[in-house]
Structure formats: structure tokens, C-alpha cells
Design brief:
This protein has 380 residues and is an alpha/beta fold. It is 48% helix and 17% strand. The protein contains 15 helices and eleven strands. Strands 1-2-9-6-5-3-4 form a seven-stranded mixed sheet, sandwiched between helices. A two-stranded antiparallel sheet has the order 7-8. It has a two-stranded antiparallel sheet with strand order 10-11. β10 and β11 form a beta hairpin. The model has no long low-confidence stretch (mean pLDDT 93).
Length: 380
């Protein structure tokens, strides 16, 4: 880890989040929030279910030592937190404790819990100063600029949670930045996605950092993770609508696969499959250099985002992709890269999609056949 914490400001329309990464960086949470609110008063500490008790207690101590009157509020773990149904119970506790816009909020957890905190912080009494402590790489990469949208009745991503955290801390004492669990793999997938959609320079920087990332060097993950958070802010704040849309690169196929297969393979690997698929379409339809296709494959593989073995029919996948897309928009398009930093929406005819989906399904079916039943990812 670097001797001094890395600090990067993530600017996005309507908000600025100071992200801090490095050993011991959470010790800044108390002074930072005190400096932001002036006179410390109440502070709501949102704690994701399953957070280590010693971490929650350390945060309580750090905040109380700056004069805050801390009260703890539990939030659900994982996907249950990124749901509209989780908002009301937490809001009831905040209201019961008398939290106002002059107070503060802190949250500890993964991307879902911090997204819930961001949603509440942005809406509470017109906005309350808030900080987040990430326990997954995904939370550090995504939440400063692009918190998860909330689900409604089991349908993911329908209610936007605008970025509202003023501070986010990625401390290896609280967050295993090199973990290969779903939160870690999702963070890696978002790092690749962001590098591809932002600029040629950011893609080149990711390529240059691959030795450190593949070797699970925590410093490389802190640096690239926080840089990806900044890049996501730039993309999300673009005045060009097509650029803002590119933040969903790879999700068209991933969302369709998620409908068919659930999330047993993990959405991170489904998103990686979506990026591979979109790159191949880009090579055929958008003059993308074939070198990029194979380089992206290699990056994803090196980061632990391997192929998903499954047995699906092309027509099945096409219909699932349409169903998933229609939950958010009536416009049918695919986000295709023509070069790093140039990912744009394009219409793609069904016959072209079916041609590519046939190749995809055949290769993943063959992969499934090479694995023992206990090793197989998914069987549709």
C-alpha cells in the first residue's frame, strides 16, 4: 500500500465526492465530516448487516471522538439493500431519531448499502452531509458517481439513486480490495468497462497497470479503482447523451443472461460476457480493430472474469435481452465500441444478433461439456 492515502475528487453533476484510498484512511472520517458540517450534532451510522462488529465499533469511536452523537441504523445486506422496500424502514429510524439537514450520515457496506445511503442522503431534508466506508471494490468504484439504482418488486435498476456522498473511504482494513468475491469481481468488471468507455488514455492506463492488477497488488487496485471512479464521474456528467448512455456498455447481454440464469455465476462475469459480445459486434459493425477484441478478452481473463459455461439457445437469449431492455426503455439499441473511448448506441438487426448469439451459445455449450457437473456454472 502507498505510504500516504490516495485522494481523488469525483465530480459529477450536482455532487462532488472526495474518495480516499489507503491504509488507515478511515481515520479521516470524523475530522472530514466535522469540517463539512461545522458544529457536530447527530450522526446516523448506517451499518450493513454482516459488517464486522469491530469495524462498526471503530467507526462509532472515530465519529464520537469528534463530538457527534452517533446512533446506529441497520440496513439489509447485498441486493436487499438496493430495493425501494428497504428505504422506508431506514427512513423511519432516521425520522424517529430527529435527523436534520444540519446533521450528518455515515454508512459502511458494499455497493448496495452505500447506494441506499446515497439515495437517502440526497433526499433527506433537501440533502444531508454523508460519507461512505466501502467494504467491496465495487462500492469504491461505482458509488461516488454511479450508485446502484433501486429495484422495485424484484425488477432491478428502476429508481435512480443520484450520487450524494461527500466522502468515500477505501481502506484495506475495512475492504479487501483484491478479493475475488462478487463485490471484488464486479469492481474489476467496472474498471474494465469504465476504461473502455472513457478515453483512449484511460484504457491505456488500465493496460499499463495490468501487471500489478494481475499480481493482486493492493496499491494497483487502489490507484485504478479510484481513477475509475473519477472516470465514471466524467462519463456520467457528459453533455453528450450518447456518452452518458455508454455507462451501460456490456449490460444488454448481461441483463438477458441474468433473466435466464439468475445470478449464480455472478453478474460481474455476465457483464464481462456482455463486453466480449459487444466488442465482437463492434468489430463487425463499427470498424473496431480486432486487436482490441482480443486485448479486452485477455484483460478480463487476467482479472478473473472468465467465460460462463451454459446451455442456452440463441433465440432464448435474444428474447431475454429484449425483455430486459424493455423494462427501462422503448428504444432498441446496442452499445458498440469503435475504439477505446468511442462507445456509441447503434441499432442491430435481429438476424445479425442471432448470428453472433449462435456462436456465443455454441462456444459456451462446449465449455459446459468439458466440465464436471459440480464445476458447471449454469445450465439453462
Amino acid at each position: 500500500m502507498p505510504d500516504a492515502p490516495i485522494r481523488k475528487a469525483v465530480a459529477v453533476a450536482g455532487n462532488r465526492c472526495m474518495t480516499v484510498g489507503g491504509a488507515g484512511c478511515i481515520e479521516r472520517i470524523g475530522p472530514d465530516l466535522k469540517g463539512a458540517v461545522g458544529r457536530p450534532r447527530r450522526l446516523a451510522l448506517l451499518v450493513e448487516e454482516g459488517t464486522p462488529a469491530d469495524l462498526a465499533e471503530e467507526l462509532r469511536r472515530l465519529l464520537a471522538s469528534e463530538g457527534f452523537k452517533v446512533f446506529e441504523v441497520g440496513v439489509p445486506r447485498g441486493r436487499d439493500a438496493a430495493d425501494l422496500g428497504a428505504v422506508a424502514p431506514v427512513a423511519d429510524e432516521l425520522s424517529g431519531a430527529g435527523l436534520t439537514a444540519d446533521d450528518a450520515m455515515a454508512a459502511v457496506g458494499g455497493a448496495e448499502a452505500l447506494s441506499l445511503a446515497s439515495y437517502l442522503a440526497g433526499q433527506w431534508c433537501g440533502g444531508v452531509t454523508a460519507a461512505g466506508v466501502a467494504t467491496t471494490l465495487e462500492a469504491a468504484v461505482a458509488v461516488p458517481a454511479t450508485p446502484r439504482a433501486l429495484a422495485v418488486q424484484g425488477r432491478d435498476g428502476l429508481i435512480s439513486a443520484p450520487p450524494a456522498l461527500g466522502y468515500l473511504y477505501a481502506d484495506p482494513g475495512a475492504c479487501d480490495l483484491v478479493a475475488e468475491d462478487e463485490g471484488g469481481l464486479m469492481g474489476r468488471a467496472l474498471m474494465v468497462q469504465t476504461a473502455v468507455i472513457n478515453t483512449k488514455a484511460s484504457y491505456g492506463a488500465l493496460m499499463g497497470a495490468m501487471d500489478g492488477l494481475a499480481a493482486a497488488d493492493p496499491r494497483a487496485f487502489v490507484d485504478r479503482g479510484l481513477e475509475a471512479a473519477c472516470d465514471r464521474g466524467r462519463v456520467a456528467s457528459s453533455t453528450v447523451a450518447a456518452t452518458r448512455l455508454s455507462i451501460r456498455y456490456g449490460q444488454r447481454l448481461a441483463d438477458g443472461l441474468a433473466l435466464l440464469l439468475g445470478r449464480r455465476a455472478g453478474y460481474a462475469r455476465l457483464l464481462a460476457e456482455g463486453m466480449r459480445f459487444a466488442a465482437r459486434l463492434g468489430w463487425q459493425l463499427a470498424d473496431l480493430d480486432s486487436t482490441f477484441v482480443f486485448d479486452q478478452d485477455a484483460i478480463l481473463e487476467a482479472l478473473g472474469l472468465g467465460l460462463v459455461a451454459c446451455d442456452l439457445a440463441p433465440e432464448q437469449v435474444l428474447e431475454a435481452m429484449k425483455e430486459a431492455a424493455e423494462r427501462r426503455t422503448n428504444r432498441a439499441f446496442f452499445l458498440l465500441p469503435s475504439a477505446p473511448g468511442m462507445v456509441r448506441p447503434r441499432p442491430v438487426e435481429d438476424d445479425v444478433l442471432l448470428e453472433h448469439l449462435k456462436g456465443f451459445c455454441d462456444s459456451r455449450r462446449k465449455l459446459l461439456a468439458t466440465r464436471a457437473p459440480s464445476e458447471a456454472d449454469l445450465d439453462g
